[in-house]
Amino acid sequence: QVQLVESGGGLVQAGGPLRLSCTASGRTFSGYGMGWFRQAPGKERELVTDISRSGGTTWYADSVKGRFSISRDNAKNTVYLQMNRLKPEDTAVYYCAATVKNWGTIDAWGQGTQVTVSS
């Protein structure tokens, strides 16, 4: 099993950038597809972006397309989420997650990191 630890959350003004990191330990990181989910107060957790094992394929929700960028460094066992042009509606707890198969079967969650965007 892999263990995930996020970092990099915080308070940022609207329009600003923020970068989240998620570092894995345990089983081989490169064997997992990785993703970032978020959950805003009163809303369901949603998948924001994901990246394939090699990093060659990425997907973005429409709400973040063109503003967020996911990347991974398998040598450092880390996946990143670069968030630009942040909006107040991006305020949420952000979680990284790992899967061997697909997002119907999530093998590990991080503890979550709060991102707050002020207007």
Structure, explained:
- There is one protein chain.
- This protein is mostly beta strands and 119 residues long.
- 0% of the residues lie in helices and 53% in strands.
- The chain has no helices and eleven strands.
- Strands 2, 4, 5, 6, 9, 10 and 11 form a seven-stranded mixed β-sheet that branches.
- It is globular, with a radius of gyration of 13 Å.
- The protein starts with a strand and ends with a strand.
- The mean pLDDT is 96.
For the biggest sheet, the summary is: 7 strands, mixed
**Residue-averaged pLDDT, rounded?**
96
Whole-angstrom Rg = 13 Å
Strand content: over 45%
Helix content: under 10%
* DSSP strand tally: 11
Shape: globular
N-to-C SSE string, H for helix and E for strand: EEEEEEEEEEE
Number of helices: 0
Low-confidence stretches: none
The first-to-last residue Cα distance is 40 Å
Structural class computed from helices and strand pairing: mainly beta
Helix-strand layout with pairing:
Blueprint: E1 2-7, E2 10-13, E3 18-26, E4 33-39, E5 46-51, E6 58-60, E7 68-73, E8 78-83, E9 92-99, E10 108-109, E11 113-118
Parallel strand pairs: 2-11
Antiparallel strand pairs: 1-3, 3-8, 4-5, 4-9, 5-6, 7-8, 9-10, 9-11
Quickly list its features.
4-stranded antiparallel sheet; mainly beta; single chain; globular; 119 residues
A few lines on this structure:
The protein has strands spanning 2-7, 10-13, 18-26, 33-39, 46-51, 58-60, 68-73, 78-83, 92-99, 108-109, 113-118. By secondary structure, it is an all-beta fold.
